[in-house]
Amino acid sequence: MTKKILIIEDDNKIVNFMTMALKAKGYSIISARNGNDGILYFCTEMPDIILLDLGLPDMDGVNIINQVRDVSQIPIIIVSAREQESDKILALDAGANDYVTKPFSMGELLARIRVMERLIEREVVYPHDNVFKLDYLTVDREKHRVYVDDNEVHLTPIEFKLLLLLIANRGKVITHSQISKEVWGYGETGDSKSIRVFMASLRRKIEKDTSNPRFILTEIGVGYRFADE
Ligand code: CA
Predict the structure, then answer these.
(1) pTM for the full model?
(2) What CA–CA distance (Å, rounded) separates 32 from 116?
């Protein structure tokens, strides 16, 4: 099966170089130029492996590792110019699987990717990595299925995207404009009224008591926060 690799890197030259070389080896490639897009693509594109730069324009790569590790054990290889031992340790402690320092040879990177593929094939990388579970809510990202207790609930594609975005950012406040930008692709002009409509519909499907939500909490005037425990 073709493996899908998500490259999160802001340097166009490196992205183009890696994309060409990896496509030539038969991998399917998605790339993000900043951390927010990287997290969104991780949620919506279901890659098999992530190649991650640590120095991104909008956030530190370690922040991405933390967010991804909250929901998934997908292999993450750091591809970074930072050579200091402490950065390497910080990234590995946060849950990165491996580390390649720039400048690197493509042969070296390919060898590291093959190690990760073998891990996936042996299912040494945790078998339940696509399933998020909290209290009575279960979300299977890969199968696009959501369960409340053991009953499947049907979400529209937008509701599902919204839910994955909230889960990926859980514990943190996510603003109306971030939601509209990441779910609908709009900028600052995002319509918070339509977000409220979608959110209300999502809540009716996953919350047992919508007047006292267990998962999707409202931050008045700002946005929403997904419960982190
Ligand atoms: Ca960079």
Answers:
(1) 0.56
(2) 21
